[in-house]
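Tokens for chain A. Residues wanted.
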């Protein structure tokens, strides 16, 4: 289904598009014909990424420096992007996170994460959404969340709070804006290693391995698996999906949830004993 012109004519803005999942998505979407704009805080990274992706795909990409925590800058930047024509899709990908015990955080540390994940995402969604609604132009907001948006998770509490709010926003606005042609969806990826996230979230190689293999498929996700899902959700084939969160984690969160999942550790002898009982 991933024909080369699948996303022809779609103009997509990706926050945090210079690195990691955002960059990978940009590359895949460009290869499928989308016109991409990436934004982020580090202009040198954005410029380099844009050059590399242009060379790799032959597609169209622009970049603009933006800290999504700055609401005025968000509105101004989105306005400038719109001057060249309306966007069709916003991918809320930019995030901030680190592994820390909650009691060790200052209020500024809480804000550092929540201001990016929750406020920044809301500012971006607002800036694009009000332009779509005003013009009667169809729009799609795809937000990258995580499974702990609904399970919660220890040691990443500000991120949990932000991502839970983004998922709540997605479901709420899907109903509020759906009748006027603006859809909102989310993706909850499991372990897809990227340099930035892995460095911030795992202190040691052996612990990274625990994280990477604790899901039922015992492997990390391949980035193509994630970018193909993004491409599908952005395509016209997925036009009836609204207010949904698609989990792509190899079954990771379910493995952590089921009450008897611990029984994966039982041996053949244990199973024989259970059968006898
Ligand atoms: C405790 C910390 C901390 C840490 C920063 N702080 N890092 N506290 N543990 N590891 C505190 C600082 O001491 C300071 O508080 C406050 O937070 C602000 O710190 P700054 O460095 O000034 O903040 P800033 O420059 O705004 O940086 C934001 C950031 C940073 C979130 C802290 O890590 C960042 O820019 N990250 C962006 C990219 C990112 O995180 N990507 C990974 C996303 S992964 P005081 O009180 O000292 O002033 C992700 C995936 C989740 O979201 C799901 C995985 C499956």
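Reply:
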């Amino acid at each position: 289904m991933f024909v080369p012109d699948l996303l022809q004519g779609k103009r997509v803005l990706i926050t945090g598009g210079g690195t990691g999942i955002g960059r990978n998505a940009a590359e895949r979407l460009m290869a499928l014909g989308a016109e991409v704009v990436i934004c982020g805080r580090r202009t040198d990274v954005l410029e380099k990424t844009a050059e590399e992706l242009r060379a790799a795909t032959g597609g169209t990409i622009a970049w603009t420096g933006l800290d999504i925590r700055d609401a005025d800058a968000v509105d101004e930047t989105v306005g400038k992007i719109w001057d060249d024509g309306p966007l069709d899709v916003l991918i809320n990908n930019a995030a901030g996170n680190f592994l820390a015990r909650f009691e060790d955080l200052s209020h500024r540390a809480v804000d550092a994460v929540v201001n990016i994940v929750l406020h920044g995402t809301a500012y971006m969604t607002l800036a694009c959404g009000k332009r779509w609604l005003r013009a009667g132009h169809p729009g799609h907001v795809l937000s990258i969340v995580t499974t702990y948006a609904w399970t919660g998770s220890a040691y990443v509490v500000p991120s949990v709070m932000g991502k839970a709010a983004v998922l709540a926003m997605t479901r709420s606005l899907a109903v509020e804006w759906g009748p006027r042609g603006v859809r909102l969806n989310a993706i909850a990826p499991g372990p897809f290693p990227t340099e930035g996230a892995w460095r911030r979230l795992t202190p040691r190689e052996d612990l990274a391995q625990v994280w990477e293999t604790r899901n039922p498929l015992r492997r990390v996700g391949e980035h193509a698996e994630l970018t193909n899902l993004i491409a599908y959700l952005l395509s016209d084939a997925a036009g009836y999906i609204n207010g949904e969160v698609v989990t792509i984690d190899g079954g990771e969160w379910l493995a952590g949830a089921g009450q008897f999942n611990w029984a994966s550790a039982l041996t053949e002898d244990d199973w024989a004993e259970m059968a006898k009982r």
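The first strand starts at residue 11 and ends at 15. The longest helix spans residues 107-135.
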